[in-house]
Amino acid sequence: MMKQSIDKKIEQERYNERAKKLLGSRIDKSLTGSNSVAISHRSPYLRYEKLILENIKDANSCVLELGAGTGAFTECLLNTGAKVLATDISEASLEILQKRFAKYKNISVKAADLEFLPFDDNTFDFVTSAGSLSYGDNMLVLNEIYRVLKPNGMYIAVDSLNHNPVYMLNRWIHYLRGRRTLSTLKRMPTTNLIDIYRKQFGQSSVYYFGSITWIVPFFKIFLSEKKISMTIDYFDKIVNVKKSAFKFVMCVKKVN
Q1: φ and ψ at 207, to 5 degrees?
Q2: How far apart are the first and last CA of the chain?
Q3: Could you give the CA distance from residue 65 to residue 130 in angstroms, rounded to a whole number?
């Protein structure tokens, strides 16, 4: 537990430092969400945004975004018209997020730890996250999401999966280079964790993407980004990708 607490502090300081550097420069407000992702890696984020737009339709809905950071995937939530509360452990990142989306009136921010959300039970209609699940103890985060959701509330997430050995090796290289902490490696989502979410919530849909995303640098020699994306998506369909996936999108509903 002590190691995990130290790692959390390291990650908090890392993202605060990145944000502080951005605060001193012009904040790019143009590219957010799936549009900010390379075409060859975009499919899971398009599905994530599609699920958000299909399900969040009431302007009176309360949406909690976990690990919002500087707002890379916040704008899609804001465009639903719902009341969005963006949270992150990095206060400097949230400062950038506020400046980035200053024109929106349906946004508020709060510094918050994924493992100990400072909200009452049954508060939110929706909880969302994009790439945040490994930044907290898996079961603590799951239970907190479940707790703060209203009955029939929904959690929508896009994240990385930790089974494909190519992606696992790449993450370890980043760890050895000091770009991520050991705790985040150990907490990377697995199909087992997804099954626990499905069992806890009672109603679910899960989609898997990018079994051969690791080969993109080789494809770039002779294919365009669009054709690479089409090739990856086609391969995912014909092999019924799951454990070899790079990314997954999960939508679970609190019906238990």
Answers
A1: -130, 140
A2: 30
A3: 9
At 207, the pLDDT band (50, 70, 90 cuts) reads very high
Spell out the domains of the chain, with CATH numbers in brackets.
Answer: 2-254 (3.40.50.150)
Residue 168, burial from CB neighbour count under 10 angstroms (0-12, 13-18, 19+): middle
Confidence of residue 2 (pLDDT cuts 50, 70, 90): low
Using 50, 70 and 90 to split pLDDT, how confident is the model at 111? very high
At 124, give phi and psi (nearest 5°).
-110, 145
208: three-class secondary structure by DSSP: strand
User: Is the model's pTM score more than 0.90?
Assistant: yes
Please state the length of the chain: 256
**Looking at the predicted structure, is the pLDDT value of residue 110 above 70?**
yes
In this predicted model, what pLDDT tens digit does every residue of 211-234 receive, in sequence order?
Answer: 888 788 888 888 888 888 888 888
- CA dist 31 and 83 (Å) reads 22
Q: Which of 144, 253, 126 has the alpha carbon at shortest distance from 202?
A: 253
What is the distance between the alpha carbons of residues 171 and 153, in angstroms, rounded to a whole number?
33
CA distance 31 to 37: 9
Distance CA 163, CA 37 (A): 22
